[in-house]
Amino acid sequence: METSAPLDIVIVGGGTAGWMVGTALVSGLRPHQARVRLVESDEIATVGVGEATIPAMRDYNRFVGIDEVEMMRETNGTFKLGIEFLDWGFKGSSYHHPFGVHGAAIGGAGFHHHWNRARLAGHDFDIEQFSYAIAAARDDRFEFPNPDPDKIDSTYSYAYHFDASLYAKYLRKVAEGRGLKRTEGKVVDVARDPLSGDVASITLVSGEVIRGDFFVDCTGFRGLLIGQTLNSPFEEWTDWLPCDRAWAVPCARADRFTPFTRSTAREAGWQWRIPLQHRTGNGYVYSSRYISDDEAAATLMANLDGEALAEPRQIRFKAGRRTASWTRNVMAAGLASGFLEPLESTSIYLVQIAVMNLLKLFPGKRVEPALVEEFNRRVDMEYDRVRDFLILHYHANTRTDGELWKHCREMEIPESLKHKLELFRHRGVAPNYHDGLFALPSWISVLLGQGVLPGGYDRMVDNVPLPQALAEMERQRSAIARRVPAMPTHADFVASHCAIP
Ligand code: FAD
Questions:
Q1: Most CB contacts within 10 A, which of 106, 185, 205, 346?
Q2: From the CA of 218, how far away is ligand 1's center (Å)?
Q3: Structural domains in the chain?
Q4: What are the recorded GO MF terms, alphabetically (predicted)?
Q5: Is 378 left (phi over 0), alpha (psi -120 to 50) or beta?
Q6: Buried b vs exposed e over 47-64: b needs ≥16 C-beta within 10 Å?
Q7: What pLDDT was estimated at residue 50?
């Protein structure tokens, strides 16, 4: 039987993950349900990168009751309408992954099926013309989506670019204000209950012992509790996602203030460009199998669009996840639970998923195994879907430079991705997950953007004669083309709405 005494929860780690988990717990639980404590060490630095997010982040902020304007000011934030991918399918190619649809459905069939029928009939037009988010992004414009779902400018969503370290700092203020107790100190020992095997307490370098009923491991790549103490195995995905290092460097803000992240494929990986209010974040994610560290750093430094503001910093990682990110009375979040490269800005989202599921499946003093199983099922599903989506970017390429690209094109891919590719090639069928990532527009943009073309289309398309469908497509295209130029520029919008004081 569950007792009614509050659960003592101890979060170890105060990076973005620790503070996101802490803030959500003190926002979602009342003091009679849980007492939340967070331990972080000033001696051990956070990973210090993480600047791009996806629209789901707004759900997290809403849940914890964050004021958007205040958050944007405190984190040097900018708005994001999607990601521009340069040189991915082949050198010289470009496409956007927008936060929004490519056209509205016509007569019950998805827009991309109509587009494909028209394409197969010889009308070769770019599907990106039908995406409001892409049109606005290309023009460096931003404003909030229209709440009226009948309007063309309601057909997109948005996310943020921000300094994740400042976001963590901001969350700390919020969480401490709501009763979270923070302790600075390095954890030097972890004790387990001799009977149950659960984690019972942690000991700080000061000698202080902190006991808890439930622990959240947010210690980053160390995985102090989940890995080093409970030995939850790490399933490696490096055969499919061979990038294992990154150089990161900020540079001065460029003239072009884009409302999107840019990802440029390079010989042995890819480079990110993320505009913040006061600077631009850059990094080169690469595979050490295919390029030396020095060469990778030189490539990054030669491809900045502003003066470098620091020396580049290297980060090492391995793609994969824990086979059980909730084990016994420990749940891992953030880098302690797994790592997927930031190609689609999903790490912060995966922290959000972890803590929201923890709240939904909140345990009692004795952890019910069925809750643990369900949590791990949900988290694994999210990781696996994101993994497939990332692999697609690497696999669907016709680049002729670099061994990385040849390896990725020819490698055996997961059965789950093979199935998705077959369905899309056959009849344009793509996943449309409503619960979790990624939804249909995301798959369509990357599949088409990287040259995976469907040979057929949804039969429902034939209910609408081609000329009628073409007229409707043109109506949607011209509505976008008329509306976008009336939007403020991203720079003006940020300046008037949430500029750093
Ligand atoms: P960390 O930041 O490493 O924090 C670990 C914490 O644990 C620290 O507070 C440390 O003091 C504490 N700690 C560790 N050991 C102990 C101990 N013994 N005692 C006490 N405290 C301890 N995500 C995105 O969503 N978007 C992006 O654009 C993005 N870009 C990225 C780019 C790169 C190159 C990398 C590597 C990651 C990127 N991420 C991105 C991921 C993102 O940075 C992380 O998911 C996020 O910052 C969470 O990190 P964390 O809190 O898990 O770990």
A1: 346
A2: 8
A3: 7-51+163-235+319-384 (3.50.50.60), 98-158+385-486 (no CATH), 245-316 (no CATH)
A4: monooxygenase activity; nucleotide binding
A5: alpha
A6: bebbbbbbbbbbebbebb
A7: 79
Amino acid letter, 346: T
The token pair that represents 282 in the structure block: 């850059």
**Does residue 187 have a known ligand-binding role?**
yes
Look-up of token digits 């990094």: 283
Find the 18 Cα to ligand 1 centroid distance in Å.
9
Task: Name the residue type at position 234.
Answer: F
Residue 80 in marked binding region: yes
Residue ranges of the chain with per-residue pLDDT less than 50: 1
Q: What is the pLDDT of residue 448?
A: 98
Distance CA 229, CA 211 (A): 15
Cα angle for residues 18, 27, 206 (degrees, 5° grid): 40
- Of the chain, the end-to-end C-alpha distance in Å amounts to 53
> Catalytic annotation on 80?
yes
Query: Which of 47, 190, 205 is the pocket-test mutation for ligand 1 (most atoms within 8 Å of CB)?
Result: 47
State the pLDDT at residue 3: 54
pLDDT of residue 59: 97
What is the value of ipTM here, to two decimals?
0.99
CA distance 387 to 483: 36
Type of residue found at 325: S
> Closest Cα partner for 137 from 497, 484, 496?
484
Instruction: For 136-244, list the strands marked E by DSSP.
Output: 159-161, 181-184, 187-192, 199-204, 209-211, 214-217, 234-236
- Give 394-431 pLDDT, tens digit per residue: 999 999 988 999 999 999 999 999 999 999 999 999 99
How crowded is residue 374: how many other Cβ atoms within 10 Å of its Cβ? 15
Q: What span, in angstroms and rounded, lies between the C-alpha atoms of 218 and 44?
A: 12
Name the active-site residue from 80, 181, 318, 418.
80
CB 39 within 8 A of CB 23: no
CA-nearest residue, atom 34 of ligand 1: 246
- The amino acid occupying position 323 is T
Q: Ligand 1: distance of its center to the CA of 348 in Å?
A: 9
Residue 372: both structure tokens together: 């643990």
Q: What does the alpha-carbon distance between residue 78 and residue 38 come to, in Å, rounded to a whole number?
A: 29
β-pairing, 269-275 vs 326-327, is: unpaired
The answer to the question of whether 14 is labelled as a binding residue is: yes
Which residues approach ligand 1 with their CB closer than 6 A? Answer: 12-18, 39-41, 44, 46-47, 49-53, 164, 186-187, 218-220, 222, 224, 246, 248, 283, 315, 317, 334-336, 342, 345, 347-348
Distance from Cα 179 to the centre of ligand 1, integer Å: 23
